[in-house]
Amino acid sequence: MRETWVVGAASNRFGKMAESGREAAATVALRAIESAGLEPRDIGMTFVSNAFGIAERQAHLGPLLNTALGIPEVPSATIESACSSSSAALHEAYVHVAGGFLDAALVVGVEKLSHLDTLTATSYFAIGADYPFEARNGATFPGLYATIASAYRQKYGTRPEELGAVAVKNHANGARNPHAHFQKEITMDMYLRSPVIASPLRLFDCCPFSDGAAAIVVAARERRPSPVGEPLVIRASVRTGSIADMHDRPGLTGLPASRLAAERAFRQAGLSPKEIQFLEVHDCFTIAEIAALEDLGFYPPGTAGRATREGETQRDGRLPVNPSGGLKAKGHPVSATGASQVVEIFEQFNGLAGGRQVPHAEVALAHNVGATGGSCSVHIFGRR
Amino acid sequence: MRETWVVGAASNRFGKMAESGREAAATVALRAIESAGLEPRDIGMTFVSNAFGIAERQAHLGPLLNTALGIPEVPSATIESACSSSSAALHEAYVHVAGGFLDAALVVGVEKLSHLDTLTATSYFAIGADYPFEARNGATFPGLYATIASAYRQKYGTRPEELGAVAVKNHANGARNPHAHFQKEITMDMYLRSPVIASPLRLFDCCPFSDGAAAIVVAARERRPSPVGEPLVIRASVRTGSIADMHDRPGLTGLPASRLAAERAFRQAGLSPKEIQFLEVHDCFTIAEIAALEDLGFYPPGTAGRATREGETQRDGRLPVNPSGGLKAKGHPVSATGASQVVEIFEQFNGLAGGRQVPHAEVALAHNVGATGGSCSVHIFGRR
């Protein structure tokens, strides 16, 4: 295995894109390549994620993107793993580069759904769930994660303010992130008064539908010794699965795929949770952030909500979580999400995070979940 | 790089599936694993292709498949590259295994569209083309390949009987393949009287929409020294791209991505076309088989049609091409096609091809194209 780095990264502003997905993908891809001090011709393969390309009637996005970048002969593949698509694409890029098959690879995640009516967009999202058992029976993602929140509350007696503290914190971070969909703080009072979407989840527990695009460049140390900024050394790149449907799992208060991925990633990196200084985790709903902090080994079961309420996971807390604003406030353009977590860590390591900058960190972790945890990716990044 | 093998393979009968895509995928996956003398728990990762999963309202197929196989914790990714999706998935599996990241991987391609009305199915297929420039303006695949056929005819004066000879040969092979959608011979007269679909292409120039599923198991030699049958040694696994849209390419009589992929695959394998004894090529339309034989270096430009008419590419000819029946007769369940080409080579090497068995071969090649050649995969297989 060669030591493998993230040498460049870029994101657009999540929210509503005027341009098409392919245009946004090409724009962020070029910016990521430039941020690495590379040129498109240095790229050996392009890994694209665009799970809901059907929304733009476009599959096979790689050749269109590579043609736009002036490197049409470069191979490409589209990688889908529901909401963990672009972290799955990063894993493929990592394997190609670390294994010596490529010297540099491009990962681009993009999604555009905002031009659709809400019902159509919702039905596209729902194809990430198990159609005959879940979506066809009306179980969409707010309802499925509400089931997790209910089970969690029943077991641990979680207070609404604990979920609310995740939302308030992530909105505070998003307000300082120029890439974020929601750049606006909220108060606990606003949270508690927001309408119930799927009990116990309220409006401010839910991430939005967002358009967006994010790109990262992965390269081998040997072939890219002097990147323009501070590269991220990929210390672990792990993917896992779990029983696809929640109703078949032994418990509902966390995600088995997250637990397994964290265990393997810490082993691969030779690290423990104590050595991680900040995190980007998959907070599609506030309960998901609380469960993630426990599944990943940062808090004992049933305690992450209280710690959040006590401010431990704020930007200036003991363990900053989702300094980007997370899916909750930065937004969740499904296939761009995993890549955008890495963009955040790249910007944090390079001191480019402005008002949301966390203290100097040597090691950070990104956690990205597919659907209700049928898939999970965990990446651990260090400094050179 | 570790020497990497295809140790198991299975296909269902292409055509119209009564069961769902996920059920068919699980069935062929289990049969492929059994044909390798392995068990599901030996699989380290699953690479699924299902480009038109939207037709069954189902994305994120990997966790559902792995759950059905009893290995829910195993990671998965869905790989899309239009009609070359499952050969792209094979390439990912090859890289993971050859690079030492996994000891065994499962590749499954599946598609089910037959329950849709033809217009809906056609519009799903068309998302593989460039939507704003091609599909939106009415250019679907028969029209795009008809453009290639017209340009080819104009340059080389091809006779209709040369295209027809591809169809007659592939139907003769399909008639001997229990996996084939069309198990029925046709005559040149039937070909010449079949209706024009997109001039100069007639009904019998076009592959059908098919449902189908095919699976292969890829494993490292070190970890799988005694497969049940004759394994295929992967001597080359190459993917390439080209300018996505035909209207931007310098010529129309062949596919640049095929030429580049063949050149690189022969270099990787240390072989020349003379050493290949039979081929599975991407004959979505008859003209595509003729162009492929020239692009891959088996015939000089403008000559493969005549050679086909003279019988050189029949089962008992100098260079058997598409002994399976090809996309033309075996059928084209988009994401299953690349994997099914490998199933054919596996069955041929193991003497399981019954009435379509070709003479003993040491080396065979599979060629799979995405859309109109925006992507191409070429794999070369040898014996142990």
Q: Characteristics of this structure?
A:
Peroxisomal Thiolase, Chain A, domain 1; nine-stranded mixed sheet; homodimer; 384 residues; 34% helix; two-stranded antiparallel ribbon
Question: Would you spell out the secondary-structure blueprint of this structure?
Answer:
Two copies of one chain form a homodimer.
Chain A: E1 4-11, H1 21-35, E2 45-49, H2 61-68, E3 76-80, H3 85-98, E4 104-111, H4 118-126, H5 141-156, H6 160-174, H7 188-193, E5 196-198, E6 201-202, E7 212-220, E8 232-241, H8 256-269, E9 278-280, H9 286-295, H10 304-309, H11 326-330, H12 337-349, E10 363-370, E11 375-382
Helix pairs in contact in A: 1-2, 6-9
CATH-derived topology of the domain at 4-116 and 209-223 in chain A = Peroxisomal Thiolase, Chain A, domain 1
Which chain pair has the greatest contact? A-B, 62 and 62 residues
- State the helicity of chain A in percent bands: 25-40%
Summarize the biggest pleated sheet of chain A. Answer: 9 strands, mixed
Q: Report how far apart the termini of chain A are.
A: 16 Å
SSE string of chain A = EHEHEHEHHHHEEEEHEHHHHEE
